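Design request, C-alpha cells follow.
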C-alpha cells in the first residue's frame, strides 16, 4: 500500500505539479491501496494515461484563461488611465472657465463700484477666489 503523499511526491519528482498529480491519480481511477510500496510502475502508468490529451487540453485551457485575465487586466488599467486623464482634463476646463467667469465678474464689479454698486456676495466671491488662486499657486510651487 502506497501513501497518497508518496505517490504525489513520485509525480513531482518526475516534473509534475502536485495538482496535476492529484488529478491524474483521481481521473485514472488508480487505487493507491492496491499498489505496493516499492512498485512504481502502476503510478507511472496512471501518470502516462493522464499525460496525453487530458493534460494537454487542461494546460491549453489554463493558458487561454491566463491570456484572458491578462487581456482584461490590461484593459482595466487602460480604462483607469483614460478615466484619470479625462478627470484631469475636466478639472482643468472647469478651472479655466471659473477663472474666466470670475475675471468677468471682477471687471464688471470694478466698473460698478465707482457708481455706488456694492454687493457683499460678489465681494466675498472675489475674496474667496483670490484665496483659492493663491492656494493653487502654492500647491503648484511645492
Amino acid at each position: 500500500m502506497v501513501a497518497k503523499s508518496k505517490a504525489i511526491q513520485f509525480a513531482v519528482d518526475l516534473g509534475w505539479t502536485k495538482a496535476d498529480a492529484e488529478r491524474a491519480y483521481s481521473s485514472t481511477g488508480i487505487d493507491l491501496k492496491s499498489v505496493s510500496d516499492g512498485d512504481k510502475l502502476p503510478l507511472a502508468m496512471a501518470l502516462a494515461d493522464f499525460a496525453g490529451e487530458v493534460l494537454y487540453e487542461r494546460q491549453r485551457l489554463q493558458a487561454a484563461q491566463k491570456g484572458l485575465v491578462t487581456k482584461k487586466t490590461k484593459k482595466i488599467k487602460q480604462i483607469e488611465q483614460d478615466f484619470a486623464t479625462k478627470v484631469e482634463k475636466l478639472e482643468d476646463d472647469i478651472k479655466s472657465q471659473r477663472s474666466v467667469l470670475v475675471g468677468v465678474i471682477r471687471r464688471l464689479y470694478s466698473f460698478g463700484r465707482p457708481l455706488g454698486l456694492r454687493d457683499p456676495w460678489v465681494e466675498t466671491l472675489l475674496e474667496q477666489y483670490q484665496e483659492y488662486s493663491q492656494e493653487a499657486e502654492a500647491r503648484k510651487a511645492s
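Comment from the thread starter after seeing the answer: thanks! The mean pLDDT is 83.
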